[in-house]
Write the structure tokens for this entry.
Amino acid sequence: MVLTFALHSIFRSKVRLIVVATVLGIVFFIVFLTLSVNGSVQSYAKEFKKVSAFLQLRASGSMGHVNMIGSDKLIPEDAYEKVKSIGHIVKVEKYLLAMMPKSQGHDNFAMHIGIEPGAVKRLESHGEVGSPRIIAGRDLTDKELEKGTDVAIIGKEYAEWLGITTEMLPAKIIIDPSLSSNSIYATKGTPREVEVVGIFASGYVFGDLQLYMPYKTFKKIYPANGISWLYITVDSAEYVPAVSEHLHKIFGKSIDVNAPISSAVFESATSKRIQKLSAFTIANAMLLAVIVIFLTMTLIVREQVREIGTLKALGATNAQITIAFALQAFVFVIAGVIIGTIIYATVGSTVITKFFELTMKSFLPVTYQSVFDAAGVKTVLNPFSFIFILLSAIAVGVLGSLQGLHAISKISPKEAIQNE
Amino acid sequence: MSESVIELENVTKVYSPDVHALNGITLSIPLKGMYAFVGPSGSGKSTLLHIIGAMDVPTSGNVVLDGVKLNNLKDYKLTLIRRKKVGFVFQDYNLLPNLTALENIMVPMEFAGMSRIKRLRNAASLLEMAGLAKRSTHKPSQLSGGEKQRIAIARALANNPKVILADEPTGNLDSKNAEQIYNLFRNLAKDHTVIVVTHVERLAQLADRVFYLKDGKLTRTDKNNKL
């Protein structure tokens, strides 16, 4: 009967029930979203850990450009074989780089890069980032890269500088290693004619001022006793620190090991921040829910002082009345959970996907974006999340109604008469 | 004289140094019969009702209800006393608005831990006694003032208490309905002690004894021989 009284009391003000349940529903929807964001980020971080991670090796303190004044130190040629023998390393790519002055006496320059078959076309100044795409002509073939054919592909800015249009492809150019500028010195290499077979676009200006040619062709043009860069692919981000340490053991201080934006960085920086942000958001959402229940229960108790006094006059103990009113608080929070679940089930996935598209994904390197898509959004409509939400709802109900329930214990049965 | 069910000895109630609601009240009320407390506003009759009904405790003096001394009892014990020994009838009925007539009568029985079947049987019987058997499923908003008060009286009898305390029970009723309530109380007085706080002379005349209060003191006790 008391429970019937409690349930009827909830429906006494339907508008209040709807408003409170909706506000709590939005709060629990935010909790669901936050759990989902956190779950997705953890999932992404886990995926990124599995993804190969990269390390870049250069001679200590050097840019590794074969003709750059003061920064032309190279990695020893035998480093390539040494690195390949280290555990967890799945791929080693070697690069040679030279600067090409655009005009005598100035620092404007383009970049010439020699690559081997299977090497990623990494753009200077952009780490492993950037994705040059052929927009005219064709790419270099593995056969050409293997043989060291006199072919090249150039960025669209480079093509514009040389006056090469798409209609002119393939076009012959001469690479002259004896050209110099303020920061570039003339080498004793041999000028060589190469055929430009394709033009690429990279997405940034200096990237489009670069030229790729076979590694062997590069060596025919520029005198290079060593390697500009070694790019090392480690089978899992987890082993990056260990591999890095191993490299330092082998080469001592003669090399610099750079780990550009990596999954390890993502994991430690983004993932942990999101975890903290999630905890903060959930705590605040719960606090809001507690405040809503607190205000609602305080109002209900105030409205029903006379009924409470009457119940006490009729022989109800504080515990019996408290249970009846606590039940009202729980009906509010459970209604909120149901509404939050319905909202989440309806629009949650869309909201989360949009959130990641607009935030984290857009800031990720291109190479990681596919991983992001593959990992997908993690929905949290599972038993563990429900248990978490239900326990949270119970906690909200208890904390929010404590003051109201305390007030009930202080109401005298005399209120049944005095409140007339 | 029959055995006393209520005994007050030199009872005082002081709310503040300036407010002495009761000043040395001593009285004895026998089991069964109808008794009235009469007095102007502020005379202390409501405070006396609170103390007799175990809703409040005196500042000094002794209160014994059905053999139980109420002085210094904790809230929980007072609750049990109210539940078992006292039935309340209020001027504004104080029915729970969301419950039906039958459910309202069952409420005190639930507090007493009675089984649902027994609650239903007893409540139906009390509704019959109040002459409202056909109104069992009606909610208070669907009942007239007189019907509400009869439901409230039936509720007061739910746990078969020895004492029924009624605070201005006909204050909101017209004369016809008030007369029905008077008759109901007179009938109840055959088996229970009915104590009424009232301004209504007609109701006071129906009482076996009338206690007159003024400024927290018992000024006169009239024994009514008409009945």
Notes: The longest helix of chain A spans residues 263-303. Chain A has a mean pLDDT of 85. Residues 2-49+265-418 of chain A form one domain.
